[in-house]
Write a structure and sequence with these properties.
This protein is an alpha/beta fold and about 200 residues long. Helices cover about 45% and strands about 10% of the residues. The chain folds into two domains: about 50 residues, Helicase, Ruva Protein, domain 3, CATH 1.10.8; about 110 residues, Dna Topoisomerase Vi A Subunit, Chain: A, domain 2 (3-Layer(aba) Sandwich), CATH 3.40.1360.10.
């Protein structure tokens, strides 16, 4: 006898979709679905409305590829941002992280990933050509390659640095090393090596 689902198809679909979110497996998705259903008026209905509005309004910025409800995005349209400094990141989540830190007042360019021979991702699969076009416009004086300290991230950084060598601009990268509040005993070998290599004067 086939096993019967404990809930109707609508609830089962909700659980299935929630399980596709990062960090949520089937069990966590069931708990989340039940939590939403039990708080239908306070959570489920507002969430459904927010998701519908986001799906209808959110678009990709034609300039930097950020996600926003306007095009160009709020960052590209902000006259207070420095157009001469461009920070290149892998994903939108990296832009959000830098904005949370409130340490950067320039503009961004989102690559959409990194070069990866194993995954078959080449330069044409990223927005590197769009980056070169922006720099060719003449406004940009420095490009900060804020890519993750992974093999693919550093490979991508080297490729972009070579690609931009034809332009009269500064190409820099983030320093990698000891984080603020970090204790040496808890750091991995790669972080310690980078910290020593990128040491600064006092």
């Amino acid at each position: 006898m086939p096993r019967q689902e404990p809930a109707g198809p609508e609830i089962t679909r909700l659980i299935t979709l929630l399980a596709k979110l990062p960090g949520l497996g089937p069990r966590s998705a069931r708990r989340a679905a039940l939590y939403l259903i039990e708080r239908r008026a306070a959570l489920l209905e507002p969430l459904a409305g927010a998701l519908a509005e986001a799906a209808a309004r959110i678009t990709s910025c034609d300039i930097c590829y950020n996600l926003d409800t306007q095009n160009p995005c709020a960052i590209c349209a902000d006259p207070r941002r420095d157009p001469a400094t461009l920070c290149v990141v892998e994903q939108v989540s990296d832009l959000w992280a830098l904005e949370r830190a409130a340490a950067f007042s320039g503009r961004y360019h989102i690559l959409g990933g990194t070069l990866s021979a194993l995954d078959g991702i080449g330069p044409e699969d990223l927005t590197i050509a769009g980056l070169a076009e922006r720099i060719a416009g003449g406004q940009v004086k420095e490009v900060i390659l804020a890519l993750n300290a992974t093999v693919d991230g550093q490979t991508t950084a080297h490729y972009i640095s070579d690609r931009l060598s034809e332009f009269d601009i500064r190409v820099s990268g983030l320093a990698h090393g000891v984080p603020v509040g970090g204790e040496l005993d808890f750091l991995d070998d790669g972080t310690l090596t980078a910290a020593l290599r990128d040491r600064r004067d006092y």
